[in-house]
Amino acid sequence: MSTYISKYANGAAVDAALDKAEAALQPGDPLALTGGYTESGATLTQSGGSLTVPVDGKTYALTLSAVITNITTTLPTAPACSGCTVYMIQGATGYAVAYPAEWRWPYGVPVAVNTKPNSVTRLTLTTDPFGNVHADAEIRAVYA
User: Fold this and answer.
1) CB count in 10 Å sphere of residue 4
2) Which of 28, 48, 74, 83 is most deeply packed, by most CB within 10 A?
3) Each residue of 75-112: pLDDT tens digit?
4) pTM above 0.85, yes or no
């Protein structure tokens, strides 16, 4: 399934279209924006309480299966910069996620993962030329 969002839409129309598109996305579905941009998703799998996230420019879907207590990031070689997006999807049981202390958050405050059943938290990671990981997260709607 592909989801298309017109480059001529703006403001509230874009927000509504993105919310609708996110609700319809399944792991592995490509996201295509008219005007030439296409991004294919990939799936991350956690191993018990551990997760490895490659900061490689891709968008990932992660269905949480346990509390995550250890996240490792695979970074590009400095001074290269990169980023990635991870959609953390809760099933019927909500699981917490502990972020690495060295990640840099806006205003120094990490955003907690939404632990409500069937909720989604979007995590965005970027790197700077010095190898630091900058993180931002957004709680998305609960999808039944």
Assistant:
1) 11
2) 83
3) 887 778 899 999 999 989 999 999 999 999 999 999 99
4) no
